[in-house]
Amino acid sequence: MPQAAYTLETAALRRILAKPDCRFRWTTHALERMSERGIHPEDVKRALMNGQIIFHEVKEDILYRVDGKDLDGARLQVQIAIFEDIVTIKVITAF
């Protein structure tokens, strides 16, 4: 169940994902973990589209953890940073 505090952030994520010029940046860490865990990029995109932001933290970027479901309906969490000015979602890791 999403926390009410992240309702606006989740809505903003969905608006960004719906933009035709939305791009993804995949960190090396994310690609390595996804490969180890058998997670496909389309699984990540699906989880982001149907998921809810459940946590955030401030590091080098403002990071958000999204809890959603992959293409097969299995639970998938993805950690991302959002850059609205260049319509980019940086995928940090997936698990």
Description:
- With 95 residues, the protein is α+β, with helices and mostly antiparallel strands.
- The protein has a single domain (4-94), classed as YaeB-like fold, CATH 3.30.2310.
- 34% of the residues lie in helices and 37% in strands.
- The protein has helices spanning 7-18, 28-37, 41-50, and strands spanning 23-26, 52-58, 62-69, 75-83, 88-94.
- Strands 1-5-4-3-2 form a 5-stranded mixed sheet.
- Strand 4 (75-83) and strand 5 (88-94) form a beta hairpin.
- The longest helix has 12 residues, at 7-18.
- The mean pLDDT is 90.
Structural class: alpha+beta
Number of helical stretches of at least 4 residues: 3
| Regions with little confidence, pLDDT below 50 for 5+ residues | none
Give the overall shape, derived from the CA principal axes.
globular
What's the helical proportion of residues?
25-40%
CATH architecture classification:
2-Layer Sandwich
Q: Could you tell me the number of beta strands?
A: 5
Distance between the termini: 18 Å
Mean pLDDT: 90
Total number of distinct structural domains: 1
